[in-house]
Every structure is written in structure tokens, then in C-alpha cells.
Write a structure and sequence with these properties.
It contains 12 helices and 14 strands. By secondary structure, the chain is of the alpha/beta class. It has 2 domains: about 1-105 and about 275-368, 3-Layer(aba) Sandwich (Isopropylmalate Dehydrogenase); about 110-140 and about 170-265, Isopropylmalate Dehydrogenase (3-Layer(aba) Sandwich). Bound molecules: nicotinamide-adenine-dinucleotide. Nicotinamide-adenine-dinucleotide (NAD) binds next to α4.
Length: about 375
């Protein structure tokens, strides 16, 4: 009998329910057309959870997420909840989920699909075939380091301060994730920090070097200062395979790399933790300006689900099929409004989900 893979779906707000609905279609198709099967549960997060439970992530929902282990989220937030206290705003639900599940490694692929090559602001010859994976440390560094605050220093003047801090285990565990992923891809890692001016960067470089020597000497390791990496991403992005970096630099470099691809509605992400926990979500927000209109591009969420198939369910075969189907749809010149181009056909969220399933059907028919 097929193993049932547990999947928790948190649709969230705005376009979240629309884009996650397309993933539910896909799980149904996979169950009918492959040997995988799912046990799916669904609950609220963000504004929808505030409306239903009074908090952006209830303890009960959090427990369910921890038990299920693999979570697919839509997006949170929207104008309806903008004036709520900072600590119980929709985004606080997502931050709580990441923290409580100790999701320390954030994976952000930046892939340029041939059919969307003109969506990038860089020249096609620079971005053609681009496939970069940024692994960002997500639970440490300057965003969490203590002491932090704003203090009065007299004479009507103030001082704002944060602490950049990393420990050996924090660096090693995210390093291991990145090296393991590199082995399954192009076998090359760029480790980025500012070892020239920061002690935490010096430690980062030393620990990554040690980890490399001890366990991963088969992987090519290149150390690069984060500011140089920002420059190289625009100058010659195809030199990169996997980039591993800290929370602050990863925040900036992953957004920069994402924009090489040119379209927010296409960008998936995964956040991995210990005990095989994984949270999969599109990079985009809840897009309240287009919510409920059938205009949202579901591909970022579908590609996030493909990452869940690859990293949580260890079904790279099925992940490949879903990713190829998404590419096939783009090659057929079917587009949601956000990626519409001259000569293409504009379709709705629902039709895009159906088109991905149509492409999966076509691939089966061609293989038969
Ligand atoms: P956004 O990503 O929601 O939207 C930015 C622009 O991109 C909008 O014009 C939107 O229509 C468009 N867009 C986004 N996703 C799209 C998709 N799948 N298909 C087509 N078009 C898409 O960012 P924003 O407008 O700054 O934020 C809106 C709300 O989302 C805010 O409440 C914000 O806090 C929240 N937010 C949530 C997350 C998250 O849940 N991880 C991330 C970012 C923003």
C-alpha cells in the first residue's frame, strides 16, 4: 500500500486560498496517476485566523503543523488587519510558525524559464538557463541577536543598536544543508559573508571551511564577500550554483537573485528545520489588489509544492514532472496577467492550474 504523506495546507489571506486550491487539484491528480498518496489537513493562518480564532496562529493549529511536519502556505496579510497591534498582526502568525518549528534554512531558487526570458531586466544572454539556489540562515544573526534596542544617550540624542551573532552549530547546520543540496545539483557552493570587517563573518568562513574539509571536500567551495556577491549576481549570475549565507545578507541577495527572473508570481520557497520539518510557500504576498478576481498566478505555489515533493517527500521524480509541466504551459504561451506577453493567451488562476494538469496528462500520453 502507498505511504500516506502528511500535508498541512494553510491558505491564509488574499490570493492565498486561490493559489493553494490549485495545489489541491494537483495532489488529487498525483494520487490518481502515481503511487503517492496524501493525508491532507487544512487550517487558518494570518488574518483568516484572527477572524476565526482571534490570533494569527492558534496553539492548536501550530500543534497540528508540528504533527503533520510538511506545511504548504499561501500568503498572509491585507488591509483589513493593517491597524491591528504589531504582535498579533497576520505576519506574526508566519513568524511564530517559522520560529516554533525551528526552520533554520530558507531555500530560494532563482530559475529563469526560457519562455519568460524577456521578463528579466537583464539581457537574455546573461540570464539564459539560470538556475541558482540561495540557502539563507533564517533563525539567527542580526535579526534576533541581543542586545538590541533604541536608547537615550542624553542631549536629546538616541542610539539604535542590533547584534550580529552566530555560533558554531548555527553555521554548521545551515552549511550542511547547503553542501548536501549542492551535491544533488552542480556540486558548487559560494559561501558569502563579510569576513574582512566582521568577526561573525570570520567565524562563518572558518566554520564553513572546516565543515568542507571534514565532510564535503568533493564539493567545490568558493568564499566570496557578500558585497561582491551582490555585484557578481548582476555581472555573471551563471557562475553560481548554490549560495549559502547568513540571515541579513541572505535576505538581500535572495531578493536580488529573484529579480533576475523578473516575475514575483513564479517564485517558490522552502524553509527547512530539524526533524524533517518543512514549510513551503510562494515568495509573493497576499496581493489584495487582485484577490478574488481569478487573476493570481498559482505557479509560485505549485512550484513550492514541487519543492515539498523533492525535499520533504523525497519524490524528486514527481517534483521533476510538476516542474516540467509548469515549463510546458509557459512554452504553450499560456499566461496569467502578471506574466502576460505579446502573442500569448491570458488565462485565469483556475485555468492555469488546469493547464498544468493538462501538461502532466500530455507527458504521460507521450511516454506511453
Ligand atoms: P504582494 O506580493 O502581495 O504584491 C505585490 C504585487 O505583485 C501586487 O501588485 C500583486 O498583485 C502582485 N502579485 C503578487 N503575487 C502575485 C501572483 N501570484 N500573481 C499575480 N500577481 C501577483 O506584496 P504587497 O502588496 O507588498 O503586500 C500585500 C500583503 O501581503 C501585505 O499585507 C503584506 O504584509 C503581505 N505579504 C505577505 C507575505 C507572506 O505571506 N509571506 C509576503 C509579502 C507580503
Amino acid at each position: 500500500m502507498a505511504v500516506k504523506h502528511k500535508l498541512m495546507i494553510l491558505p491564509g489571506d488574499g490570493i492565498g486560498p486561490e493559489v493553494t486550491a490549485e495545489v489541491k487539484k494537483l495532489t488529487g491528480w498525483l494520487e490518481s496517476n502515481s503511487d503517492i498518496s496524501f493525508e491532507i489537513e487544512e487550517d487558518e493562518i494570518g488574518g483568516a485566523a484572527i477572524d476565526k480564532y482571534g490570533v494569527p496562529l492558534s496553539d492548536e493549529t501550530l500543534k497540528k503543523c508540528a504533527d503533520m511536519g510538511t506545511i504548504l502556505m499561501g500568503a498572509v496579510g491585507g488591509p483589513k488587519w493593517d491597524d491591528i497591534d504589531y504582535n498579533i498582526r497576520p505576519e506574526a502568525g508566519l513568524l511564530k510558525l517559522r520560529k516554533e518549528l525551528d526552520l533554520f534554512a530558507n531555500l530560494r531558487p532563482a530559475i529563469v524559464f526560457d519562455a519568460l526570458i524577456d521578463a528579466s531586466t537583464l539581457k537574455p544572454e546573461i540570464v539564459k538557463g539560470l538556475d541558482i539556489l540561495i540557502v539563507r540562515e533564517l533563525t539567527g544573526g542580526v535579526y534576533f541577536g541581543e542586545p538590541r534596542g533604541i536608547e537615550d544617550i542624553g542631549n536629546g540624542e538616541r542610539r539604535g543598536f542590533n547584534t550580529q551573532v552566530y555560533t558554531t552549530p548555527e553555521i554548521r547546520r545551515v552549511g550542511c544543508v547547503a553542501f548536501e543540496l549542492a551535491r544533488k545539483r552542480g556540486n558548487k557552493i559560494h559561501s558569502c559573508e563579510k569576513a574582512n570587517v566582521m568577526e561573525s563573518g570570520k567565524l562563518w568562513r572558518e566554520e564553513i571551511t572546516k565543515l568542507h574539509q571534514e565532510h564535503y571536500s568533493d564539493v567545490e567551495l568558493i568564499h566570496m564577500y557578500a558585497d561582491n556577491c551582490a555585484m557578481q549576481l548582476l555581472r555573471n549570475p551563471s557562475q553560481f550554483d548554490v549560495i549559502v549565507t547568513d540571515n541579513l545578507f541572505g535576505d538581500i541577495l535572495s531578493d536580488e537573485a529573484a529579480m533576475l527572473t523578473g516575475s514575483l508570481g513564479m517564485l517558490p520557497s522552502a524553509s527547512l528545520g530539524g526533524d524533517d520539518k518543512g514549510l513551503y510557500e510562494p515568495v509573493h504576498g497576499s496581493a489584495p489588489d487582485i484577490a478574488g478576481q481569478g487573476k493570481a498566478n498559482p505557479l509560485a505555489t505549485i512550484l513550492s509544492f514541487a519543492m515539498a515533493l523533492r525535499y520533504s517527500f523525497e519524490r524528486s521524480d514527481l517534483a521533476d514532472r510538476v516542474e516540467h509541466a509548469a515549463q510546458d504551459v509557459l512554452t504553450q504561451e499560456l499566461r496569467t496577467a502578471d506574466i502576460m506577453a505579446v502573442g500569448c493567451t491570458e488565462i485565469s488562476t483556475n485555468a492555469m492550474g488546469d493547464a498544468v494538469i493538462g501538461a502532466l496528462d500530455k507527458a504521460i500520453a507521450e511516454a506511453a
